[in-house]
Amino acid sequence: MTFDQLRIFVVVAETLNMRQAGELLHLTQPAVSAAITALETRHDTRLFERVGRGLELSAAGRSFLPEARAVLARAEDAQRVLADLSGLVHGEVRIVASQTVATYWLPSRMARFVETYPGISVPLVAGNSATAAAAVLAGEADLGFVEGHIDGDLLRVQRVGGDRLGLYAASDHPLAEQPVESADLQRAAWVLREPGSGTREHLQAGLARHGLNLDALTVRLVLPSNGAVLEAVGAGGLIAAVSDLAAASRLATGQVVRLHYELPPRDFRVITHRARRASRAVAAFMQSLGTP
């Protein structure tokens, strides 16, 4: 059994698709299939059930998956120790961030960091606050950047920045250029971010200060990114809560307008795992953000 076979097994188990796993691993589909077959043959155990054209984990595969993940995590820990021994010439800082942070706040800070430490790679995955927290807990990310409220005894949470949400609509929307009351928001048609996003959570908290909740809104669309939400808003008829950072370019060109209704500012936070030792590369990245 090799680390490559374990890595291939884990990715196939997560995607349940040989072709997609090959694309993620930069391998051909036959190479992926051969690695799985070699594992199954060597240990005389079927790890996947072939159901029609699809795959499902067998009972043995479900039992083996957490062990395979644990072995790969330990191997990555060993690599980080060796990277530390070589100083900051080599290393990696794995980041998962909510979309607003990943798109509008982190890139410039990452660019400055890699200019200082060109040998350190900083892979970034964008998701939402919930997926960032889950990745840190699972050991799949060293740092998670979130906008939402995060709880968890195993997570350390520190403020690193912030932004403000605004309510946005097309320029010809009936609520544009006039004071907006809570009753107007209840009558309006909305497009919202998906559950688990910090934007949606912060909107809910902001509305609660005015005696409203999301259930009182008429929600026509739920979309998975700020860009998609703003595209829907620009088409007319809908309003949305979006970060001012995300809306700035469309606001400047007149594609959307900011409604006269204020929501409280929100914090950006970095989360780390309390039980895991931070590598020197991770520590250097945190220091570059002004966070000890």
UniProtKB/TrEMBL annotation:
The keyword Magnesium does not apply. GO terms for molecular function: DNA-binding transcription factor activity; transcription cis-regulatory region binding. Belongs to the LysR transcriptional regulatory family. The keyword Nucleotidyltransferase does not apply. It comes from the Bacteria. PANTHER family: HTH-TYPE TRANSCRIPTIONAL REGULATOR, HTH-TYPE TRANSCRIPTIONAL REGULATOR CYSL. Keywords: DNA-binding, Transcription, Transcription regulation. This is HTH-type transcriptional regulator CysL. Residues 1-58 form the HTH lysR-type domain.
